[in-house]
Amino acid sequence: MKLVSYMVLNRKIFATTAILLVLAACAKKEEPAQQLENLPPEQIFNSAESMLDDNDPEDAAERFSEVERLYPYSEWAKRALIMSAFSYHEGGLYEESRGAAQRYLDFYPADQDAAYAQYLIALSYYDQIDDVSRDQGVTFQALQALRVTIERYPDSEYVTTALLKFDLALDHLAGKEMEIGRYYLKRGHFGAAINRFRVVVEDFQTTSHTPEALHRLVESYLSLGLDQDAQTAAAILGHNFQGTQWYADSYALLRGKGLDATGDTKGNGWLSSIYRRVIKGAWL
């Protein structure tokens, strides 16, 4: 009987301890909110910065938001709002970061940190760009937001980085077109492949994929028996990227068929139009 009583007692002690721990945890969660209401904004702001220093960006963002909630329209609220946008981004909460940054732009459009808020919006899209095998909708959103940063705040310190990321995002989109084009080319769907490579040449001509796109056009047109178009594509490639392996490969393909890289200056096709602009030095 004593043994049974001892076991029952132990279970009661364990259950009581567990309840106390749960209550203590709940109290701990409620305690900061109650304490924050009695603190000045500067102290709340500093505590949020300490959370950032401790690599706790999500909690830091929520703490910065408390400054905005408890002291709206104050200078501390303004500072806390941009910091919450930054903290959310650091924590990988990109939608929340965009929301806070957009609120900052809505409330303080002429403030010195407005450029940074817009850049954070762009960055929140840019940092979500996946590999070229996935849908590129977020890449278009990143490009749009980066363009706004560049055009609306041309003198800000973020323009140089925004321009770089804009070019990289364009390169990413061109890479997607190239991936699909190669897929069609390997399967003998030459017309569909040409459409993809044409997008790269016409819309993404400043990207690193342009030389390969021109070479793939040479391959595709030769496969269809459109020798003049293949020669024109090779002529454009040679004019702009003669030192590349892509031009060497295209030249070898043409020579194998007894052709040379001569551009068509009289045709009405899209490649002929580009070739005429190349000769005049108005393209690439």
Please describe the topology of this protein.
Layout: H1 2-36, H2 41-53, H3 57-70, H4 75-90, H5 94-107, H6 114-126, H7 137-152, H8 159-186, H9 190-203, H10 210-224, H11 227-241, H12 245-256, H13 270-279
Helix pairs in contact: 2-3, 2-4, 3-4, 4-5, 4-6, 5-6, 6-7, 7-8, 8-9, 8-10, 9-10, 10-11, 10-12, 11-12, 11-13
Subunit structure: Part of the Bam complex.
Protein name: Outer membrane protein assembly factor BamD
Subcellular location: Cell outer membrane
Question: How would you characterize this protein structure?
Answer:
By secondary structure, the chain is mainly α. The chain folds into 2 domains: 32-171, Serine Threonine Protein Phosphatase 5, Tetratricopeptide repeat (Alpha Horseshoe); 188-279, no CATH class. It has helices at residues 2-36, 41-53, 57-70, 75-90, 94-107, 114-126, 137-152, 159-186, 190-203, 210-224, 227-241, 245-256, 270-279. Helix 9 packs antiparallel against helix 10. The protein starts with a helix and ends in a 5-residue tail after the last helix. Residues 40-234 form the Outer membrane lipoprotein BamD-like domain.
What is this structure, in a nutshell?
The protein is mostly helical.
CATH uppermost class of the largest domain: Mainly Alpha
Gyration radius over CA: 30 Å
The low-pLDDT segments are 1-9, 12-31
Mean pLDDT: 87
Order of helices and strands: HHHHHHHHHHHHH
End-to-end separation in angstroms reads: 95 Å
- And the CATH topology of the largest domain? Serine Threonine Protein Phosphatase 5, Tetratricopeptide repeat
CATH homologous superfamily assignment of the largest domain: Tetratricopeptide repeat domain
The percentage helix is: over 70%
Number of helices: 13
Structural class: mainly alpha
Number of strands: 0
CATH architecture annotation of the largest domain = Alpha Horseshoe
Classify the beta-strand content into a percent band.
Answer: under 5%
Q: What's the structural domain tally?
A: 2
Largest sheet descriptor: none
Subunit structure: Part of the Bam complex.
Protein name: Outer membrane protein assembly factor BamD
Signal peptide: 1-27
Family: Belongs to the BamD family.
